[in-house]
Write a structure and sequence with these properties.
Blueprint: H1 2-21, H2 24-27, E1 30-35, H3 43-58, E2 63-68, H4 76-84, E3 90-94, H5 117-136, E4 140-147, E5 152-155, E6 169-172, H6 175-183, E7 187-190, H7 196-201, E8 207-210, H8 212-217, E9 226-228, E10 236-242, H9 243-248, H10 251-285, E11 289-291, H11 295-327
Parallel strand pairs: 1-2, 6-7, 6-8, 9-11
Antiparallel strand pairs: 3-10, 4-10, 5-8, 5-9
The structure holds pyroglutamic acid.
Pyroglutamic acid (PCA) binds near residues 148, 173 and 211.
C-alpha cells in the first residue's frame, strides 16, 4: 500500500515537473479510445485502422489509438457528445447525422446536389470552414472526412417511378434521408448499419438508400432483389478530436496526428472511389439486379430534391449561403 502511494506521488511529481517544463505529454505514453459506428470490414474502419497505425509509428508508440468499431463503445448517436464531453478523446460519425443540430452538417446528404466524387470534393471544401466553426463551438476539431460511394436504391421489386415507393417501410440513417423518404410517400425507420440484416429479415423495413459498400457488406442479396443506381448524393463520415485532449499532447504528437489525418483523408477518398465498382460487382455476382433508373423515377426524385433544397436554404441562413456560393451554386 505504502509502495503504491509512493509510486503515485512520484507520478504526480514527475507530471508537475513536466508540466512546468512543457514536457508533460512528450514524456508520457497516451492511449486514446476511439469509438466508430461501422463494422471492421467497412472501408472507413479499415482506413481508420491504418490511421491509428500511422500515428503510433510516427510517435514511437507515445500516442496509441484503440478503435472500438460498430458502435461497441458508444452508440452512433452518442459518439459526437462522448467526444464533446471528453469521455472519448477522438471519434468517428456520419456527418449528416447532425443535420438537426445545424443544416450545414447535412448539406452533403441533400439529394442531387453533389452526386459524384469531384463535386463531393468541391462541396467538402465549401462546407469545411462552416463545419469547423460549428464544431469549434463545441470544443471539437475535425481531423479528416471521407465520403461513402454514391447512394443507390435497394428494393424487393422494380421501381419505375416515385409512386412505386409509396407505403414502403424504408430504412433511413439521418434526418435528411428521413425527409426524402417521407416526401416520396414511404415510411421511414432509422436503423444502424450493423442492424440492417435483422431489420430486413424481421420485416421492420423492406427498402433502403445506401452505398454499394453498405449493401454488399450487409449481404443485401439475402433480403432484397433490386439495386437502382440513382446516385443521389455522396455523404461523408468525419473524424473529430476533443480540443482539450489535443492540446494536452506534445507538439510532435500533435503534428504526427495531423499529418496522419491528412494522409487518411487522401487515402480514404481513393478507397471510396475504388469501392463503388467493386461493390456493385459483388451485388451483381450475388444475384441482385442492377437497374438503371427510369427517366420518370429520376424526374420524380429530383423534384423532391428541389423542394428539399429550398427548405434547406431557408433553414441554413447565412452559413448556408456561404457554403452554396463557395460551392458555386
Ligand atoms: N452507409 C452508411 C451511411 C451511408 C452509407 O453508404 C449507412 O448506410 O448508414
Amino acid at each position: 500500500m505504502k509502495f503504491n502511494k509512493h509510486l503515485l506521488g512520484l507520478t504526480v511529481a514527475v507530471g508537475a515537473w513536466a508540466a512546468v517544463t512543457g514536457m508533460a505529454a512528450a514524456s508520457q505514453d497516451v492511449e486514446w479510445n476511439m469509438p466508430t459506428p461501422y463494422p471492421d470490414k467497412t472501408f472507413h474502419t479499415v482506413n481508420i485502422a491504418t490511421f491509428a497505425k500511422d500515428v503510433e509509428a510516427a510517435t514511437g508508440g507515445k500516442l496509441k489509438i484503440k478503435i472500438h468499431s460498430a458502435g461497441s463503445l458508444f452508440k452512433h448517436k452518442e459518439i459526437k457528445n462522448a467526444v464533446r464531453g471528453g469521455q472519448a478523446p477522438i471519434g468517428e460519425f456520419f456527418l449528416g447525422l447532425l443535420a438537426n443540430d445545424n443544416p450545414a452538417y447535412g448539406i452533403d446528404t441533400q439529394p442531387f446536389l453533389a452526386t459524384n466524387y469531384d463535386d463531393a470534393g468541391k462541396l467538402w471544401a465549401a462546407q469545411k470552414p462552416i463545419v469547423t466553426k460549428l464544431l469549434d463551438k463545441q470544443g471539437l476539431m475535425p481531423l479528416f472526412s471521407v465520403p461513402w460511394p454514391p447512394q443507390g436504391l435497394y428494393t424487393k421489386k422494380e421501381i419505375g417511378s416515385v409512386d412505386d415507393l409509396k407505403g414502403l417501410k424504408f430504412r433511413t440513417y439521418n434526418p435528411t434521408l428521413e425527409k426524402f423518404v417521407k416526401l416520396a410517400g414511404a415510411a421511414p425507420t432509422q436503423v444502424q448499419v450493423p442492424d440492417i440484416p435483422t431489420a430486413f429479415s424481421t420485416g421492420r423495413v423492406e427498402a433502403m438508400i445506401t452505398s454499394p459498400s453498405t449493401g454488399a457488406n450487409s449481404k443485401a442479396w439475402d433480403f432484397l432483389t433490386h439495386y437502382t443506381d440513382i446516385q443521389a448524393w455522396v455523404p461523408k463520415n468525419i473524424v473529430v478530436v476533443n480540443k482539450k485532449a489535443f492540446a494536452k499532447l506534445g507538439k510532435s504528437q500533435q503534428d504526427a496526428l495531423l499529418a496522419a489525418a491528412a494522409k487518411a483523408e487522401t487515402r480514404g477518398w481513393k478507397m471510396s472511389r475504388e469501392e463503388t465498382a467493386a461493390k456493385v460487382k459483388i451485388l451483381k455476382d450475388n444475384g441482385v439486379k442492377i437497374m438503371k433508373p427510369s427517366p420518370a423515377l429520376m424526374a420524380g426524385l429530383k423534384k423532391i430534391g428541389a423542394k428539399m433544397m429550398d427548405d434547406w436554404k431557408k433553414a441554413a441562413g447565412a452559413d448556408g449561403e456561404q457554403i452554396l456560393s463557395a460551392y458555386g451554386n
